[in-house]
Amino acid sequence: MLKKEQVLKILKPISVSLIPYVLFYLPILSKNTYLGGSDPTKYFYPSRYYLWESLVNGRFPFWTERIYSGFPIYADSERVFLHPLNILVTVLMGPFDSYKFLHLMFYTLGSTALYIFLRRRGFSYLGIFAANLIYYFSFYHLFHQQHFNFTLTTFSIPLGILLADNFARTKKIKWFYLINFLVVLFLYFGSFQSVLILVMAILFYLVTNIPEIINRIIGLKLMFLSGLLILTFSLPLLVPTFQLYLKANRSTFGLDFTQGSYHPLMIVNVIYPYFFGNGSNYKWNMVSSEYGIHETYVYVGVVALVCGFLGLKSLKKQRFRNFLLLNISAFLILGIIKFIPFYNNIPIPLISMFRYWGRSIVLFDFALACLAGYFVSYPSKSIEMLKFKQFELIKIKHPLVLPVGLLIILTLLNSRTLLIMKLFVMRAFVPDRSFFVWLTLLALTLVTITSCKTSLKKDLLSYSLVILLFVDLFYFGNGIIRSYTRTLNEIMPNPPNISTENFTGRTVVVNDNFFWNGNLYYPMWGVYGYSQYVTTNYIKTLNREEIHNDEMFLQSDDPLSYQNLGVHQFIGNDMEFVYKAEPKPLLNEFDGEVLYREEKEGHMNYYISSNKVQDLNTYITNYPGWRLRVNGQRSDIESKDTGQFIKFEVPKGQVVIELKFIPTIFYYSIATSLILAYLTNFFIKK
């Protein structure tokens, strides 16, 4: 039978994790409610549903005809079709509940890792509870719930740091392997930017806690081995994704890695919640369309900021302190990189591959969580400096304070700065009830801390600060999850009012829910879709047919606009037929007739009668991996490199045609991965 001390030892980390999770995520814990928002509703859930439907029907979805007139959906990394864990839980739990499970699983793993990591540093239970609240329930994580894969990765940053701590303490190679395994695990979730942020946090810890790693030889060996391990086991994901990326519209036209960078004055969003309004009153997008509400509001709590500041002043463990300052510095540089001269114009390796580097604030949140947790754990150590040393409070000995301050002054002439100031003057920020709650919390925090010198005991101070911290974050943040909560009926669009037997050939549905990935729910072969990897050729094809597109929405109300895409039925916004032609195969007009056809996603069979030797045009999207057989013999696809649709030559007479999509590059990458695994093992033994 467990003793009381053993029970408490088990219950403490569980309570640190589950109590705030239940309170904040209560709206989605019922059976029929889920995390929603724009991306989940129109991207993640349709993709998860299509994966589940395909797998339970005994087919792996390498190729789909339901979006973009045909698309190698497995190579779109953010759909997470190649992650073994995601595949397993999706099959077992379905497309919707499986994400709930993953969300709770990775939150619990990260939260437990944070508990262990901070306990090793002598943090109290209340201090860890405070740190957990700040890291997981400040605005960054609450607002980013619609970014499924990004969130799961940043949830696990404390786990990566804990593994790095184990490696630093023991120098055992198994922990080094586990760190690399963790990186590979999250690479397969497809959010490469969040993985890069995870790697930064791990590297910051290793550099500050293993001095010898800075040694050139040791550091290079570890970097080489780490790169080899990660590359070896992530090739089956990276190679198909890179192949698709090279054909993608984003690759052709590139991206601006400074897009979405915070203006220096936007630091106010860390300090104050909803500074320029919320909901229909939101005004940061007046400064720039880049500042969507979920990317902009990053409030961490005024109570947390006060505690974190005092924790920074009192923390004497130099390595731990340096690690936290590195995290803060990374955010101060990356978060406002657009406004840093010279750096905003050079393609920094890896960094320049991604946008919206304001997301690096998760590193700041982690550092602040640790600093505030330290103060809550040891308030008496910091109280001593409050004895009328007001000037000492503002002396922050950090090399970035001066340049960042000068940078803010220099940007006062920037047009965005002037617009922000104009909005402020126009009272976009209104002293409403939220302002007075915020001001009251700040006052109570300062009064509680200062009165501790004479009247309050340390434990009572810690309890008081945790209560204030919780009230702060819950009062301002609990509505965020409610705003993301959706029922299944709100997530999954209703099908058209036609029988499934009529879902043949290309179908266009002029309905808002089908402009993104809604077609993935139903067996309709569509022309719409959303993916960061939509190909340049397809966008050009749509432009040529004068069909509007902006990568997300493809729309024309004229059924005849879609003739050259093989569309033969058109369904209006009321989900009723507007236009329906005779069902035709995905073969263009030719001199002859189709005697038999069998069209499945990724596998087409035709038996035709050809009146002459001729080129046969199709409406089947051309992409590397299609294998063509004509009368049982391998044949070449003429439009292999340039055409949007497959084109090939057929002889005169009766012809048997087979087209099958085989992801050869995926299979080759698996074989290469196995070879590299063998060579890596050989290298390690040597």
From TrEMBL:
Keyword Transmembrane assigned: yes
Transmembrane segments: 7-28, 101-118, 125-143, 149-168, 175-206, 218-239, 260-276, 296-312, 324-344, 356-377, 398-415, 435-453, 460-477, 665-684
UniProt entry keywords in alphabetical sequence: Membrane, Transmembrane, Transmembrane helix
Protein's name in the database: Membrane protein 6-pyruvoyl-tetrahydropterin synthase-related domain-containing protein
Annotated source species: candidate division WWE3 bacterium GW2011_GWC1_41_7
